[in-house]
Amino acid sequence: MPLLQEKAIVLDPKDNVATAKVEIKAGVVIIGDGGREIKILEDIPFAHKFALEDISPGEPIIKYGQMIGRAIQDIKVGELIHIHNLESLRGRGDKKIITS
User: What is the pTM for the complete model shown?
Assistant: First the structure.
């Protein structure tokens, strides 16, 4: 089983997500801090985030020690975190406000 640091980046002990350094296939078990096993539940593309712990709706998503958003649904350990289950607190840039 690969170690977490071989497959992903976690910069701060407060982080509840990791960022994949390589594509990680569903079903892979990664050994995290303290020997904890993290089973990847779905394919995680390169540079995408996955949960290191269960996260409930409304709870913060912490990456690199910073709150980057909130969960909008239950997120399980090993699940992909992306715009389908994360409300960003940073500008996405894909929505334009139209005023007249």
Answer: 0.87
Q: What is the pLDDT of residues 68-85, one digit of tens each?
A: 999 999 999 999 999 999
* Contacting residues for 56 by C-beta, under 8 A, at least 6 apart: 71, 74
Dig out the tokens for 78 from the structure. Answer: 């090993």
The C-alpha atoms of residue 66 and residue 4 are separated, in whole angstroms, by 20
Is residue 93 scored above 70 in pLDDT?
Answer: no
Can you list the alpha helix ranges (DSSP code H) found in 1-100?
Answer: 4-7
What CATH architecture applies to the domain 4-88? Roll (2.30)
Domain ranges of the chain: 4-88
Q: Both tokens of residue 60?
A: 């913060």
Q: What is the pLDDT of residue 95?
A: 54
Backbone angles phi, psi at 25, to 5 degrees: -80, 150
